Amino acid sequence: MDYNFSDRVKSLKPSAIREILKNSSAPGLIPLSAGNPAPDAFPYEAIREVSQKLLEDTPIEALQYGVTEGYAPLREHLTAYMKKKHHVGGEGDDILITSGAQQVMDLLTKTLLNEGDTVLCEAPSFIGSLNTFRSYRAKLVGIPMEEDGIDLAKLEAALKTEKNIKYLYTIPNFQNPSGITMSLEKRKRVYELCRDHGVMVLEDNPYGDLRFAGEDLPSIKSFDTEGVVMYAGSFSKVVSPGMRVGYAIGPKEVIAKMVVCKQGEDVHSNMWAQIVCHRFMTGFDYEAHLQGLREIYRRKSSVLLKAMEEHFTPLITWSKFEGGLFAWCTLPEGVDMLEFVKRAMEKKACVVPGTAFLTDETQPCRAFRINFSTPTDGQLEEGIKILGETVKEFI
Amino acid sequence: MDYNFSDRVKSLKPSAIREILKNSSAPGLIPLSAGNPAPDAFPYEAIREVSQKLLEDTPIEALQYGVTEGYAPLREHLTAYMKKKHHVGGEGDDILITSGAQQVMDLLTKTLLNEGDTVLCEAPSFIGSLNTFRSYRAKLVGIPMEEDGIDLAKLEAALKTEKNIKYLYTIPNFQNPSGITMSLEKRKRVYELCRDHGVMVLEDNPYGDLRFAGEDLPSIKSFDTEGVVMYAGSFSKVVSPGMRVGYAIGPKEVIAKMVVCKQGEDVHSNMWAQIVCHRFMTGFDYEAHLQGLREIYRRKSSVLLKAMEEHFTPLITWSKFEGGLFAWCTLPEGVDMLEFVKRAMEKKACVVPGTAFLTDETQPCRAFRINFSTPTDGQLEEGIKILGETVKEFI
Q1: Does residue B128 form part of some domain?
Q2: ipTM higher than threshold 0.90
Q3: Assigned domain for B360 exists
């Protein structure tokens, strides 16, 4: 039979990068290209305890249908917690539990976007979200990143000239892939600019709790008094990504539409995972757990930094990062980045070419992304050494 | 701030039925309107045992990211099981694990449908799926049901006259809401007709394992040698709906596109639930479990039938049902169905008005749906008595 696919599916082009990365999970490769939390970051003993207890106490609650909005005790706890700790969420806001934060990107796009409408995003930005926006046939407009976050002048110019902008997508903390953190001043200004142009902000904050240097900054959502910001939170990097539990905190009116869209996609999110997250947050010392994670990633990042200083300097440079899971590295002028990535891969060190994170992957780019949470310390040291040796072959 | 919602969201109209059912979960109401599995149908002791063991053996596997296609051992086991037991899935097919079967409806629609394209469906049909199709702005064309399934003459006429038909949506076993099972002859003919018109069949089979009378019939997918049928299976009615685990078995080419769409929606389905389903299917006597479920529903349906014979005959009639969770009842001519449902609700018996399941809920309809899995035996007897008394007030 011949299949007549939808235009949105027909327009999804096969990626050149996917070809390069196709074999990146082959055995023997050093996985600097992934984005998985470190295996020792999972609180699996606590989860086992919580899970056993809830399947003894309230098995039917964990196994029966739930409501689309999410498990009520988790919604209530998160609402109070995010308000108290991060000033996220106010009177005009509501909360929706999602099947991972990726579903927040999907549902907001479904709720706001017609084909051809514009999404502003940081350039570079997280490929998973960009692909979600593309699946709704968004026009993606990338705004360049500076050392302290998005380029405000270019953002303002885009807000003035682009048509039918529905939202700005930003990851203010330890951005994926650049590792960059947006300054406080820029956060305030991004809020004002978007508000003044009637454009929503989709603030994605999966890594905010993983700061291992510098000081916490307020989220953009914390300035929101006018229903401008949809905040996407996630348990993937702080409890478990396999559970697929995320959440959206944003204007009631928008959340209500997202609930209807979610009902048509998966009815509700896995109940066991929602209850485990609730009981883990409330029955254990959650702040101590987060502190433990920061120690794990501080240590791993210092292994990376030491190796980069030894093997990269002065040829390969990297952006400053104070948290998260990624380092963004730039090759010297004249080095063909895609050739470098291929050559490194032949030597078993696998990184992601920077073009993967652009709205147009045919644009020139000398950067690549390193993940330091997945590899072991030994793999990290070995991988950086290989990359350092590889770049010398291009000079 | 003013929100400019997408056309697809703007076109979702508030339902008159939702207003009627708004208070259906109020305490004291008899829940004949739900669709939950019976609480004693959950194998929660086995799930507790499996869950504890997997969080001891392989906690990281359960908590780490997985692949979009689904947990490989579950995919392999289901592929072999469905092929051997139900002749579902052949050389040209692949399997995708989804976040409940609802996601199969969503992903196939996303993969095939442009706005305004046509979906043929049974009339009446499952409201959840109809709403998913509506969220993609499908043109829904309802084909009337007969005692042995869809009206073939009307199906053929629609296949000939409607434009841009992407698929026929059907629930051949114990259909929701009508309880009707499609005859073997009609199954074969539906396959041939759709194939000959180049239209896919979306075969939704959530209740197939819950037959408590008559003989099992082959699925439409079992005839498929040409990549015509996408089969949607689910663990919701046989293990647990709260886990949100379903699956699609269909043409490789279509599944591949659905995988890309799923990646953008929720990356992958909850890992714990996928592993629990796999270990439950392989480590326990799954066939004995299914037999136990059939006994539970056979007993509950006999409570319902006895009560209906006592309180409904001769005024309210019902369609024959040999499995599933629902009975479809028809009021005498001249009775206003919506008024009847409202009046019954005032007396604490809550059923779903039949119009909820139509492609156009303003069409005339004298039917309502009863669920017999959620209420206790006592609630079932009391509810039917109230409905029987209520109808007399209209005569």
Answers
A1: yes
A2: yes
A3: yes
